[in-house]
Amino acid sequence: MERKYEIETLPYRITAAADPRPHAREAFTTEFGGEAYADVAELCERSPVDVVYIATPPELHRAHAEIAARCGKHMVVEKPLALTLEDCEAMIECADRHGVRMLAGHTHSFDAPIRKMREVVRSGEIGDLVMVNTWNYNEFNHRSRLPKELETTRGPILNQGPHQVDVVRQIGGGLVASVRARVIEDSLSGCPGGYSCMLLFESGVPATLIYDGRSLFDTAELFWWVSEGGLDRDPDLNWKRRRAYQEKASLGRDGQAEALDRAKEEGRYGAQGETAAGETTPPPYQPFFGLTVVSCDQGTMRQSRNGVTVYGDGGPREIPLGQELRGRAAELAELYQGIVEDRPVFHDGRWAMATLEVCLAIVESSESGEEIALSRQVAVNDGPAA
Ligand SMILES: NC(=O)c1ccc[n+]([C@@H]2O[C@H](COP(=O)([O-])OP(=O)(O)OC[C@H]3O[C@@H](n4cnc5c(N)ncnc54)[C@H](O)[C@@H]3O)[C@@H](O)[C@H]2O)c1
Q1: Can you tell me whether residue 192 is helix, strand or coil?
Q2: What is the pLDDT of residues 1-56, one digit of tens each?
Q3: Is residue 249 part of a domain?
């Protein structure tokens, strides 16, 4: 986990893509000069690529992962790994059967401050872990997307939940015993707007996960207005998104779908500003996916703008962190190392399935009013000792 990579020496090239939209294929060949296919199977069968990055809508992940595996391609699959545990199991089994590696793609557990907090917990320097608490309030529910996309992921639960659950599972070691949660509704979108979740690790350590994507309070207000990507976040973003959503809502469900379908067909391409190799110009701050506070029996710590602040007997102490490779670029480097060194990858399919199990338990617990016991948890892969 502590391995450092130089962006210039990243050992991969992007040479092919598949997308049913002609506009996206043209934009890809203009930017990367590679081959562009209308169909995933055609890409996997005809192109000699070694690794496929699956960033299609989550309900297609299983089909696309199975095609990639059958064609002998290693893969990164965006979060959530799939929408059901059965699909996750099928994907893992298929990847294993074809001898390819599947890395669960991008979640904020890869952020340097989160990995550092895991390292401090493991080192025991401020004692044993006693609890983890994480809060994220933002405008997720009113970002530009089709109403059915929000419904498919139950608002933020299956879309943003994997980030938050990965962060907490990683710090706590991975093995969650049970989940109790309540989902809150977003009256504007008619979808879940967030959740309040308490989980217990097998070790007995508790964690709370709070998510509210209704564009009201913004956690960044308590964190120097740092954004999810480590940039300056617009203090008015929540209100702007909420107002824009209210205007769009007046179009009705069909009108919204038509307007967004057109926008996607005509214009949307890539991650708008972020290159596949990651942020080549490092953002000024560390990424901030909400405030995570980690308590041990001799100290407490949280992320800071440029690292981690530890509160121990001697008062607050800052651990500065460099702008090392992060996010998707770090994950691609991780997958590359896993393949060439023939070692397990950090956050594989089983890890992602365990994370989805927690997210689905949030829904189930809220519906049933019960505490949900989990059965598919796996321990974090801490990698070689630093
Ligand atoms: N990790 C993160 O921070 C992050 C951020 C955004 C999205 N995501 C994930 O990425 C995935 C896609 O989300 P999005 O918001 O980019 O969705 P999107 O709808 O904007 O993009 C999906 C892309 O898949 C393409 N596509 C659709 N059907 C296809 C098919 N049959 N074959 C090939 N391509 C097809 C679409 O044309 C589009 O280019 C989701 O799993 C989402 O959770 C992750």
Answers
A1: strand
A2: 333 444 455 678 899 999 999 999 999 999 989 999 999 999 999 999 999 999 99
A3: yes
Mutate to test the pocket of ligand 1, among 47, 56, 60 (most ligand atoms within 8 A of CB): 56
Q: How much is the pTM?
A: 0.93
CATH number at residue 295: 3.30.360.10
Whether 269 is covered by a domain: the verdict is yes
User: pLDDT tens digit string along 289-342?
Assistant: 999 999 999 999 999 999 999 999 999 999 999 877 777 888 888 888 889 888
54 alpha carbon to ligand 1 midpoint, in Å? 8
Q: Mind giving me the DSSP string for 134-179? A: EEEE--GGGSS--HHHHHHTTTTTTTTHHHHHHHHHHHHTS-EEEE
Q: Flag whether 13 is in a domain.
A: no
Whether 193 is covered by a domain: the verdict is yes
Q: Ligand 1 centre and the CA of 56: distance in Å?
A: 4
Q: How many domains does the chain have?
A: 1
Instruction: Assess whether the C-beta atom of 40 lies below 6 angstroms from ligand 1.
Output: yes
